[in-house]
Design goal:
The chain is mainly alpha-helical. It has 7 helices and 8 strands, in the order αββαβββαββαβααα. One of its GO terms (molecular function) is zinc ion binding.
Length: 264
């Protein structure tokens, strides 16, 4: 039974270096390298002569593609096998050509290998060494960081100013609140004093008025008592003998009572 390493090796042999997938309709070019029919056709699509191999860069004079049916059958077999995943690819290697990434394409903003740089996808692009691109990118980052720090300092200055305005505004409103409170406390004190004064005057007036009325009531009660006494006295005399009744005249007693009323 084939080992895992052998299966991985077979999978690599059955993988197109352009699309990095299993071959589909594999064909070979003059140098012997094999690609998917669609992949190599697209790679040479705009070329009329001098067809470079994507792997070795050898130039083929003619667009001659030879089908590889045996490889196609092997690929079909591999697709039905449980082939383990390959070891994770080195991030410093090109996925297409497995060459070390040494260049940076300014147009596409991606790292590429030497083979990519002369390929149709990048040959018309601005390409620089990856270290140079990294240094330039680092310089841009540092410049951007410096700009951000300046902007941050500007925001801090604005923040401090607004915080000062906030404190001043709080102090201003607090001062106004204290002033209004003091004014209303004074007004309340004044009203309380006025209230006390008016109530005192009212009490004094009430006292005098009540005393006057009470005195009148007392005098009226005294008069009623005198009248009741006189009435009783006259009633008693009415029951006396005629001679006794006439000894003291009624008119004299009534006049005496009227005199007492005037005196009181």
């Amino acid at each position: 039974m084939a080992t895992a390493n052998q299966l991985l090796s077979l999978k690599e042999e059955a993988t197109c270096s352009i699309c990095l997938e299993y071959f589909t309709n594999p064909v070979s070019v003059d140098c012997g390298h094999i690609f998917c029919l669609f992949c190599i056709s697209q790679y040479w699509k705009d070329l009329q002569t001098d067809f470079p191999c994507p792997e070795c860069r050898d130039t083929c004079r003619r667009r001659r593609l030879r089908p590889n049916n045996r490889l196609a059958n092997m690929v079909d077999t591999l697709k039905h096998l449980d082939v383990p995943s390959a070891t994770p690819q080195d991030p410093n290697l090109c996925r297409k050509h497995e060459e070390r990434l040494k260049l940076f394409c300014e147009d596409d903003q991606e790292t590429i290998c030497m083979v990519c740089s002369v390929s149709r996808d990048h040959k018309e692009h601005m390409v620089v060494p990856i270290r140079e691109a990294a240094q330039e990118h680092k310089a841009k980052c540092l410049s951007y960081i410096d700009s951000l720090m300046k902007r941050r300092e500007e925001l801090r200055t604005v923040q401090r100013k607004e915080e000062t305005n906030l404190r001043q505004l709080k102090d201003q409103f607090k001062s106004q609140e204290e002033r209004i409170t003091n004014e209303f406390e004074k007004l309340q004190q004044f009203l309380e004093e006025e209230k006390s004064c008016h109530l005192h005057n009212l009490k004094e007036k009430e006292k005098k008025s009540l005393q006057s009325i009470e005195q009148k009531v007392t005098r009226l009660e005294e008069k009623q008592i005198a009248l009741r006494s006189l009435t009783t006295e006259i009633s008693l005399k009415c029951h006396q003998q005629d001679v006794e009744l006439l000894k003291v005249g009624l008119q004299t007693q009534y006049q005496h009572h009227k005199t007492n009323e005037k005196d009181s």
